Amino acid sequence: MNQPSTTQHPEPDLTATQRDQEEESVHRALEGYYRAGKPPWDTGVTPSELVALVEGHSALPPGRALELGCGTGTNAIYLARHGWEVTAVDLIDRAVDQAREKAEAAGAAVRLLHGDATRLDELDAPGPFDLFFDLSCYCGVPLHRRDAYAAGLTHRAAPGARLLMFGYGPEPLGNPMPEVTSWAAGVTADELRARFAGWELLDVTPGTNSVPTFWFTLRRDA
Ligand SMILES: C[S@@+](CC[C@H](N)C(=O)[O-])C[C@H]1O[C@@H](n2cnc3c(N)ncnc32)[C@H](O)[C@@H]1O
């Protein structure tokens, strides 16, 4: 299914200082959520879309997976328990610390890395990966870092690798944090097609949220 066509936000022409400020405000906002306690997205429940990919009738065979923006690790642990060799990355150290504790308690072998999904070269995550999973990370990444995100995954993708991504559409919430300007952009199918050269957008399925959300499935060319 195709995502309804939406107005693309033009990429703002930011100075280097404005780019740094944008990244800092994203970091600050995310850190605030984790510092305040349990962030609203931390449901502890693995979404059925990932379960279908891992356990469904045409499940992928287990291989290497990289989770971008893993939060407290619920889905990285799920993948590890289902035979995947998992590396998981998050920008916020508190999230990674909690994910480590959860993985240890669950007896799940997950490589947890504190770092930036748009700067994978700075991390020890060489791949190649057969599956990338992103539950609401990319849609919050500042626009000027998104090409680097796509390049990092493309560089680490095994032939035919999948990317399963959940994201918010543009401005679904009227941007509750106006200081984080990039959060109004969300993610669209058109954007992913344009940014992920060498990948095919296989599927776009609307989420069940009260605001526009989408599950995107992409496949790296063989
Ligand atoms: C909406 S939360 C979802 C967390 C987790 N996927 C879940 O569903 O519980 C987005 C996560 O992505 C992380 N994140 C945002 N930008 C990131 C980046 N550039 N690199 C790595 N993680 C990032 C945030 O710290 C946060 O944990």
From TrEMBL:
Signal peptide positions (record): none
Top-tier EC class: transferase
Top-level taxon of origin: Bacteria
Keywords per UniProt: Methyltransferase, S-adenosyl-L-methionine, Transferase
EC annotation from Swiss-Prot or TrEMBL: 2.1.1.222, 2.1.1.64
Domain Methyltransferase: 66-149
Record protein name field: Class I SAM-dependent methyltransferase
Organism from which the protein derives: Nonomuraea purpurea
